[in-house]
Specification:
alpha/beta, six-stranded mixed beta sheet, 12 strands
Length: 254
């Protein structure tokens, strides 16, 4: 009975999408910009098991937030990508004024990198692959590939040319590993991957590999890291004590 009860609750929690609001202050916003709103989604694992019924409420939640910028921090797709017809149209309903940016996660490689990149591009995302780009004169956004592609990204090399310190800099990186050489070159790293273990008590094991398991962390050497619990689920739609989230960052002047 206990196992059945936990299983039923896990099915409910997997659909209990929550909006986590994180408020930060910075003096790096340009003149005329008093507030910046960034929405983060991560780890949707769209594929055979998760399609319109999983994505539609996420799109609705993000639309209600009206962010200036949307980022996707990897594992947006999973295996069996031939089941994703029509989902690009849902993503295209989101048109934040500063654009949509994404990075690869390990499952983009498992599902087939070319297919994953094509899906993200058709969904309106600019995929950042070991590069940093200015977003107008508002901020700098950088993204690195997941090491599942067999090459460990050099965060410092990616950030260095763009890290003038004048603009707020966001680093998108699927796994919540922090490069010591890159600390001080970004203001906010956004990651996912851990799912907070997804089903209790697996977070105890996940934390051993990823000490930054979830939430906001101030990093030694400068900058902050936020680790999303994930917006979807890997495998069956089940979560226990790790509800899915869309994260809204409200960045304002002090």
């Amino acid at each position: 009975l206990a196992t059945s009860a936990v299983g039923i609750y896990g099915l409910f929690e997997a659909t209990d999408l929550r909006v986590e609001t994180v408020r930060l202050t910075t003096e790096k916003l340009p003149a005329g910009v008093d507030r910046l709103r960034i929405a983060q989604v991560s780890d949707l694992h769209l594929g055979l098991l998760h399609r319109e019924e999983a994505l539609a409420p996420v799109i609705s939640a993000v639309r209600e937030l009206e962010p200036d910028l949307l980022v996707a921090t990897g594992d947006i797709v999973d295996a069996q990508m031939d089941h994703l017809d029509g989902l690009t149209a849902l993503w295209q309903r989101l048109e934040p004024p500063l654009g949509k940016f994404a990075v690869t996660g390990n499952h983009e490689y498992y599902a087939g990198l070319a297919q994953g990149l094509d899906f993200l591009a058709r969904s309106g995302f600019a995929v950042l692959r070991n590069e940093a780009v200015p977003v107008g004169d508002t901020l700098v956004i950088a993204g690195v590939d997941d090491p599942a592609g067999s090459r460990t990204p050099d965060d410092a090399a990616v950030l260095g040319p763009a890290a003038t310190g004048a603009l707020f800099t966001v680093l998108l990186k699927h796994r919540p590993w922090v490069s010591e050489a890159a600390t001080g070159l970004f203001d906010l790293q956004l990651s996912g991957h851990t799912h907070r273990g997804q089903i209790f008590p697996f977070h105890l094991f996940v934390r051993r590999a990823y000490p930054y398991l979830e939430g906001l962390h101030t990093l030694p050497g400068g900058g902050r890291l936020y680790v999303s619990r994930g917006t979807g689920t890997w495998g069956p739609p089940m979560r226990v004590l790790a509800p899915p989230e869309v994260t809204l960052f409200e960045i304002a002047r002090p």
